Amino acid sequence: MDKQTNLELQKIACHVRMGVIEGVFNAKSGHPGGSLSASDLYTYLYFKEMNIDPKDPHNPDRDRFVLSKGHCCPGLYSVLAERGYFSKEELKSLRHIGSMLQGHPNMEDTPGVDMSSGSLGQGISAACGMALAGKLDNKNYRVYCLLGDGECEEGQVWEACMFAAHKNLDNLCIIVDNNGLQIDGTVAEVVGPEPLDSKLEAFGFDVQTINGHDFEELEQAFQKAKTVTGKPSAIIMKTVKGKGVSFMENQVGWHGSAPNKEQYDVAMADLQKILAGLEEK
User: Fold this and answer.
1) CB under 8 Å to 19, separation ≥6 — which residues?
2) CA angle 81, 254, 245 (to 5 degrees)
3) Could you write out the three-class secondary structure of 209-242?
4) Comparing C-alpha atoms, which of 117, 225, 94 is closest to residue 172?
5) Cys-Cys with 143: which of 24, 43, 72, 131 at CB 3.0–4.6 Å?
6) 60: preceding bond cis by omega (within 30 degrees)
7) d(Cα 123, Cα 281) in Å, to the nearest integer?
8) How big is the chain by its Cα radius of gyration, in Å?
9) 156 Cβ partners below 8 Å, 6+ apart?
10) Which domains are assigned to the chain?
11) What is the pTM of this model?
């Protein structure tokens, strides 16, 4: 990846994070922490990796994305708006009655959402079904699925992983947002699923572990995943929950809390400062 592309992706990711804050602030509820930790991943997928067209969101040959940790949809909505699926003004309607942007993704109402999700553990099963359908239909699309590390405590996740390996779904790539925090505390304290890498390998995946905030590493990992044959791929991203907002970083309380006006102003100032620094490069 050349420096200019890397820089542009960093700028886009900063705008995506601003959209997250805008959404949860106006909703007065939502899940900013895990949305911010995954913002670089969302940005890479929708602006570099995936074969998609905002003008044709139902193209049968498009790549698919399933947000298995559906509560982190403020980040997905923000990147979809940034990519042009709908107006960024819509982000202010997050979780409002009648809005197309509900508290969990709804494929019936939101352009660009490939699967309704929210009940943890179920999204990866849907992604497996999509990948198998692609194989049966001789399609070349790829399926990407984002899981939370806390979500990996769900038994259904591992049933789906076993299925994916059994069916040789090499068109499936799962990504684990390994930020170490979940709603009730640290992942290690609740029901620690580590070691995730060796567990996924034992379940038949090709596994890579990367810094989820480094676009060079993201590109290398996804490029390698596309060369894997005969088995599904897994990318474990080491990330910081609340990334980019000073008072949210690594704070479990921001898993599912919305900022007040004073906190909103601080968060936006933090992100504007990051963006200004990028603009100067």
Assistant:
1) 74, 77, 78, 79, 81, 82, 88, 91
2) 65
3) EEECCCHHHHHHHHHHHCCCCCCCEEEEEECCCC
4) 225
5) 131
6) no
7) 39
8) 18
9) 121, 122, 124, 125
10) 3-279 (3.40.50.970)
11) 0.97
- Show Cβ contacts of residue 85 under 8 Å, excluding neighbours closer than 6 positions: 54, 57, 111, 112
Q: Which residues pair with 208 in a beta bridge?
A: 235
Query: Roughly what angle, to the nearest 10 degrees, separates helices 122-136 and 155-166?
Result: 10
Q: Quick check: helix, strand or coil at residue 121?
A: coil
Q: Note the helical H segments in the chain.
A: 3-27, 32-37, 39-44, 73-83, 122-136, 155-166, 187-191, 196-202, 215-225, 261-279
* Backbone phi and psi for residue 156, each to the nearest 5 degrees, phi listed first: -65, -30
Segment 144-185, tens digit of pLDDT: 999 999 999 999 999 999 999 999 999 999 999 999 999 889
